Amino acid sequence: MSTNPAKQARKRSIASALLYIEGAIVLALGAWVAVMGFTHEDREIPPLMGVLGFAFIGGLGLIACGRAFAQKKNWGRAPAVLANLIVLGVVKYQFEGGFLIGAIPLFLIAVPVLYFAVTIIPEERK
Question: Were 23 and a residue from 62, 84, 88, 112 both cysteine, which residue would form a disulfide, CB within 3.0 to 4.6 Å?
Fold first, then answer.
């Protein structure tokens, strides 16, 4: 692993941007589910509220992880890795179901986030 500060800063910047994008996508999907859930006849409110709650918390959590990377904080690393490992599991089932339009973009975001989150060297506390 490279300890070059410029390279580490670039990795942090990319990881942060990707986490912001990922969080925005999750929030947008949550909004879409909300609109679809409330505009269609066949709906059940408790499960819909659960999905919306998880989307809201997940999206804001990813954005918070991106902010942590941008501010050189280490607490954003574990949740970012966990969330993107979950995304890879989702991608697997989307590929198997033939939903490539959803699987490919998720895969293209999750893999670099995992790479950068794992390879960024934590800075020493002063």
Answer: 62
Owning domain of residue 105:
5-119
Rounded to whole angstroms, the Cα distance separating 91 from 71 reads 29
CB 116 within 8 A of CB 14: yes
Whole-angstrom distance, CA of residue 5 vs CA of residue 24: 28
Whole-prediction pTM:
0.86
Q: Per the domain annotation, does 17 fall within a domain?
A: yes
Q: What is the pLDDT of residues 28-86, one digit of tens each?
A: 988 988 998 888 877 788 988 998 999 999 999 999 999 999 999 989 999 999 999 99
> Alpha carbon 120 to chain centroid distance?
17
- Determine, yes or no, domain membership for 112: yes
**Residue 124 counted as domain residue:** no
Closest CA to 3 of 125, 124, 87, 108: 124
**Cα 109 to the center of its chain, rounded Å:** 8
Domain total of the chain = 1
